[in-house]
Specification:
eleven-stranded parallel β-sheet, mainly beta, 31 strands
């Protein structure tokens, strides 16, 4: 019979917290307030450390307040690891905080995982990596929200020689000078992006948004990518199956409202749909299908 293990940590002003869980039905809740703090959570890790290299039905809930703080969460990583039906809820407020989430990497599998990451303030960095480097990413749901200015997010599902199937990625940034990269099934001739959904929304000025599905010699099929931007001087680009990749039946949509925007869509293969809608002045739009 499986039992759920619960670990709750409340910290104010200390430098670090660490939590390690093996296998299944683990729950970690950590709250931190202060500056230069760090959190490290590992659920289902490297066999070399005596852990089971799988993570199933685990929950990690993190809240940090302050500046220059770091969170690192790994579920089912390294050595053909498996991450199934795990959930992560991560909230950071303040300035210059960093969040890193890894699920089922290193030749492993990530299936049915949910990640919800929120950062509010300035100069934050968020990195989500699901089933990369020869791994399988399927039916995962990832949400990232960043509010403020100068924030950066990179979200990867099934890239670096991995496979991304039926994944959902939703990324929202509000403020100014924010950067967002969303990658599904990119890099290497063995990367595959199939039936994925990607939605990237930015409100404000001077943002950069890019969605890649099956690019850099990967494969993209039956995937949907959408970028919505409102404000001034924003850049949006969607790449599907470009640069020597095989690609078909993908849909790309960019909608921009405001002035000084630039929108680009590049699709390689056949039976694609590309739509760019712009409202305002001094905007540029370009579509290439090859």
């Amino acid at each position: 019979m499986k039992t759920r293990q619960l670990l709750f940590i409340l910290i104010a002003g200390f430098s670090s917290a660490a939590a390690y869980g093996q296998g299944q039905l683990n729950q970690v809740n950590i709250e931190q307030a202060g500056n230069n703090l760090s959190i490290d959570i590992q659920q289902g890790g490297e066999p070399a450390f005596g852990n089971e290299n799988f993570a199933e039905d685990n929950l990690a809930s993190i809240w940090q307040q302050g500046s220059d703080n770091t969170v690192n969460i790994m579920q089912g990583y390294s050595g053909g690891a498996t991450a199934i039906e795990n959930a992560i809820i991560l909230i950071q407020t303040g300035e210059a905080n960093e969040a890193s989430v890894t699920q089922g990497n290193g030749g492993g599998t990530a299936i049915g995982n949910t990640t919800i990451l929120t950062q509010v303030g300035a100069g934050h960095t968020a990195s989500l990596d699901l089933a990369s480097y020869g791994s399988l990413s399927r039916n995962n749901h990832s949400e990232v929200f960043q509010g403020g200015y100068g924030n950066y997010t990179i979200l990867s599902q099934g890239s670096g020689g991995g496979t991304g199937e039926r994944n959902e990625a939703f990324l929202t940034q509000e403020g100014s000078n924010n950067t967002a990269w969303l990658l599904q099934g990119v890099y290497s001739g063995t990367s595959v992006a199939t039936d994925n959904t990607a939605l990237l929304t930015q409100q404000g000025d001077d943002h950069y948004a890019e969605i890649n599905q099956g690019t850099w010699n990967g494969t993209a099929t039956f995937s949907q990518a959408t970028i919505l931007q409102q404000g001034r001087q924003n850049f949006a680009e969607i790449l599907q199956g470009s640069e020597g990749a095989v690609s078909f039946h993908n849909e790309a949509l960019i909608i921009q409202d405001g002035s000084g925007h630039e929108a680009r869509i590049l699709q390689a293969g056949s039976n694609h749909t590309a739509i760019i809608m712009q409202q305002g002045s001094r905007n540029f739009a370009g579509v290439v299908q090859e």
